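Re: weekly structure request thread

Next one in the queue (286 aa):
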Amino acid sequence: MNDLPVSPTNPSGGAEEFSSAKVVRLVGRVFGPLLGAVAIFGLHMMLLGRASRWLFRRPFRLRLYLEQMEFIGVGSMPIIMLVGFFTGAVTALQGITALAMFDQQRWVGYAVGVSLARELAPVFTALMITARAGSAMATELGSMRITEQIDALTTFAVNPVHYLVTPRLVASILMLPVMTMVFNVVGLLGGYVISILVYQIDLGQVLELFRHWVDPADYVQGLIKAVIFAIAMALTACYQGFNVRGGAKEVGRATTAAVVSSSVSVLVLDYFLIEIMNVIWPTHGM
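Done, posted below.
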């Protein structure tokens, strides 16, 4: 027989157990997503550690690195130039509209230069390459996983992280800063077309303010961001593709998750990087 104590308010003797179970479920619902995010972050860092360790081990397959650099960098050039030109043009147009209220349109060169160097170029470049190259990485690795090509590499004593992840990670780190500078140059060209050719702002004043106020440190900040965004993008894409289980439908889900997670990571990281870099490189006039 059940010898649990019985009270007028708890005739079954199980209210305490029921209450404890409710508390456990409530805690699980509240902290479960957070613990899951921490676990996924840890798995990403483990993949980064494995990929970094294999970077210094033979064999050094230079061809794989060059192929990935061509795909991520050269292949992304047209979309980067197109988006860069119109980003610079739109930034100049909005800057002129705002500065016209104070009759200070000559500052548009500084506004476009700093905006591109610090924020727009690294962020937009990362987002565009995520949409093009990051999705392709996740799809390719996911397809290799479900067709057991990755298992075949292991069978032939080829480490899949060394062969598949490390070249993509290194190529992303090398090419995103390059593409960021391409974005900067083309964006400045777009700003020049709008401010000088369309709105006829004095070229000498625009260039002088740009040269005086836009500092090399602004471009250094953008390049540092580009490197960090490249790591986040490549890690997320490779992790999602590398861990696909199931069929073709799961490959599509992994690709979607890679693009969404990478894009969100870029924007979240950008906020924290801004805070850090504002301490390291104080804003002009502060």
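The chain has a mean pLDDT of 87. Residues 61-280 form one domain.
Next request, please.
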